[in-house]
């Protein structure tokens, strides 16, 4: 959420921010008009309440019945006027709050100004793409003969955009999750959190999914529960309405959750395979830090994600989002995309974002810079470390072999009971204990 006081004091700065985002700027004028009306109403209501308080005391001292009745009648008019202004005040405050909740974060000065995702910039490339002596297959062409992804039964059980991982496909995904959690804890100093997979509505307001993206969320029909679209939501809201100790910042958490999102895809786009689904697994990194350290933490966050790709020995590139392709809550955002040779494309496996104090204002997460100092809002960041199943796709397509088997990356073999390759013979789980 943006700071209304800052908007009031420097509206041109926010108009310029919206222009850079290619968003309409007239909303700032509407916001300021509502803010002015709200403050005028508060002044009027306060004056009338003071008049009522003074009048009530005076009525108690009036002995003449006729004068007393006249003053009581006058106070009823004041009460009616207060009630009417209170109704208008609630309406104005509701409109004001809604606009503040739907205004996007302002872009950081380092973000390139451009409208189209086609103008996103590759700022780093790593690794050498493998040269095959055979025609590389897509992950679905590899998985179906092995039986490790069952598309038909996934659809039968749950509908389109669902699938089942079987045998070594399921084990590979489980191994990746366990290894990535260990990697971030052991090498990057993160503390693991195992959060609930359902959250209250206010948590989604806190991280910015509501009200803008409500149609993409799954929720319980009877209770105040939403299935998490990402671990960012429960982990960030761990500290909702709290004041953190500045001496303990930065706080870095890593969490695994399944993620539930209503994917709405264009006809013909990403309809094959497991690139897009309503349910997927993800390991997420969430950081709480002091404002002056947040950009350095963003660089560190990206490196944490990139080191996973490097440990798997899969080529990737880093992509900087232009202003027109920033997410709603991010002030700066980079994607890490892993090369998939069978699909012949880069697949996003991590989005690393610095939200500034945008989420912290919404969730009321503050820190105390020094003992007895006034609390200030923290900066929050998050990034996938990494997202599945696209990491699974990257492994399958980069490690495929001419006979249709899939080699297991060396770093994952201890998590796969020593298995060196997924073959037709062992795909359903017949692996000797190493």
Q: Please report the distance between the alpha carbons of the first and last residues.
A: 53 Å
Low-pLDDT residue intervals, each spanning 5 or more residues: none
Whole-angstrom Rg:
28 Å
Number of strands: 17
Question: Mean of residue pLDDT?
Answer: 94
Shape: elongated
Number of helices: 12
> Oligomer, anyone?
single chain
The fraction of residues assigned to DSSP E strands is 15-25%
Give the biggest sheet: 8 strands, mixed
How is the largest sheet built, in terms of strand order? 1-10-11-12-15-9-8-4
Portion of residues in helices? 25-40%
Describe the structure.
With 434 residues, the protein is of the alpha+beta class. It is 40% helix and 19% strand. The protein has 12 helices and 17 strands. It has helices at residues 4-9, 11-20, 26-61, 65-102, 139-146, 151-158, 168-188, 201-207, 232-236, 294-311, 358-363, 390-398, and strands spanning 121-126, 149-150, 164-165, 191-193, 198-199, 226-227, 243-245, 251-260, 279-289, 316-320, 332-340, 345-354, 366-368, 376-377, 379-387, 406-407, 421-422. Strands 1-10-11-12-15-9-8-4 form an 8-stranded mixed sheet. Helix 3 packs antiparallel against helix 4. The protein is elongated and about 105 Å long. It starts with a helix and ends in a 12-residue tail after the last strand.
Report a brief summary of the structure.
The protein is of the alpha+beta class and 434 residues long.
